[in-house]
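Retro notes, structure queue

What went well: the backlog is down to a handful. What didn't: a couple of records were mislabeled last round, so from now on we paste the full input next to the output in the thread. Example, using TatD DNase domain containing 3 from Electrophorus electricus:
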Amino acid sequence: MQRYIDCHCHISATDFDDDIDDVIVQSQKAGIMALIGVAEHAGEFEKVIQLSQRFPGFVMPCLGVHPVQGRDPACPRGALLEDLDSALPLIEKYKEHIVAIGEVGLDFTPRVVNSDAGKESQRQVLIRQAEIAKHLNLPLNVHSRSAGRPTIHLLKELGVENALLHAFDGKTSVAMEGLHAGYYFSIPPSIIRSEQQKLVKQLPLENLCLETDSPALGPEKQVRNEPRNIVISAEYIAQTKGIPLEKVIEVTTHNALRLFPKLKTFIKV
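Corresponding output:
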């Protein structure tokens, strides 16, 4: 049986605390061979690492500082360089265990940042983490909300060669710039209700990966998403491009292994 790789998943989210074992079992039953567990802030790093140790060869840790910070979801703020202070020692500590740096990126949603200074702070945090990724020879797992063009342009300016643009919300023309830079784009289950369906039509399969962004971006709004829903992403791509599902699984898994080469070291085949 061909198997999936979930390239972007928040498996350490509190939403999964009560039934994590069942969520993992259901993920494996759905055909997932590995999922990349991304972190958003330093306080989450140890939990991601612990889950990777609890489910070795399946949960792959990815550590980074998200562009949106603030523990209260009602009062989000843009990331600051100070947010990296506690993250850097942990990234160094676990550098042999992580498969990428992320979730990193830019988020220019007005309620998050409404000034040039706030945007510049996010840029500096991304620049620093891109430097770390380059030093460790790791890819970036990238968030870009309301900032598709600035994100891709900055990645290119920094000479980033290996990046995954997750749940990209920018224009197709901007995505094409990322395509030409060699970047990959991962498609979540929410694609079935998304305005970004044109991306799937126009981006070649060779630049697509699969993700769930669990517990967010599921097929239904306000309903907890799970890794097992990755099949929805794959089926949508297959239907849209008029190709067999098996081809989508084969190519997207190949893409993930190419983008995240350390997966081959850890995955139990």
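Agreed that this is the format going forward. Reviewer comment attached to the example: The chain has a mean pLDDT of 96.
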